[in-house]
Amino acid sequence: MLPREELLKRVENRRDIARLADLAEQALKTWEIVVTDFLSPPVLAEAKEVFAPLSAVQLLSWGGYPQAERQRIAIAREEIPLEKSQITLAILEIAGNFLFDSATHRDFLGAILSTGLVREKIGDIILKGERGAQVIVVPELADFLASNLVQVRSVTVKTKPIATEELKFRPPQKKEMTTVEASMRLDAIASAGFGMSRSKMVQAISNGDLRINWKEVTQSSYTLNAGDLISMRGKGRLEVGEVSVTKKQRYRIHLTRYK
Known about the structure:
It contains seven helices and 15 strands. By secondary structure, it is an alpha+beta fold. The protein folds into three domains: about 5-85, Ribosomal Protein S8, Chain: A, domain 1, CATH 3.30.1370; about 90-165, RRM (RNA recognition motif) domain (Alpha-Beta Plaits); about 175-259, Structural Genomics Hypothetical 15.5 Kd Protein In mrcA-pckA Intergenic Region, Chain A (Roll). Strands 10-15-14-13-11-12 form a six-stranded antiparallel sheet, covered by helices on one side. A four-stranded antiparallel sheet has the order 5-6-4-9, covered by helices on one side. A three-stranded antiparallel sheet has the order 1-3-2. β5 (about 120-125) and β6 form a beta hairpin.
């Protein structure tokens, strides 16, 4: 049995982690590989952190491509080999002419949810401009969505399954930079990395627009560490790289920004 109460101490996503604990216990008892629905980035990050110390079970996540935000997790006993191919996914093409009525990620998601699907069954949605989008879903609902998703905004669409190799994802754009700061405060480093004034960054942090390692942080004075990932609503992500101390006792910080 898992140390359930210990696992659930101080977790932010208690309901999701509790469900994962149930599935992990199922995997231990049955010696089978158990696969979750799609999980959000905050839940994924917390699940990996919470289950990492456990030697009895192992977790493997996959969402269809390396940078996928929403992923499924496979859970198995430590003795059972896990591979990405065991995390089944289906890719659907949503094709239509969006030249005169462009659709956003929210538009496609709304149209998919209006068919009756719940968010947990849906992975990433990849926009293709005026040609439509591609969506990753759990395989058992692929045929249902292909039959029932016929319109996005005012545009008639044709939805059909496609091969995994037809997935058209773009690797994120990266920009490397270095900043020198008096401290490792969140507001200082984030304002430098995202190219915003300190005052605007402080406001964004207090508004809850930033997450550190997918956890919401609302204190501008929060201390960052090397390896931390800062995500900001509408601005992308910022990874804190190597940190060194200058002769004047300031911090030289390598940053990588992903758009």
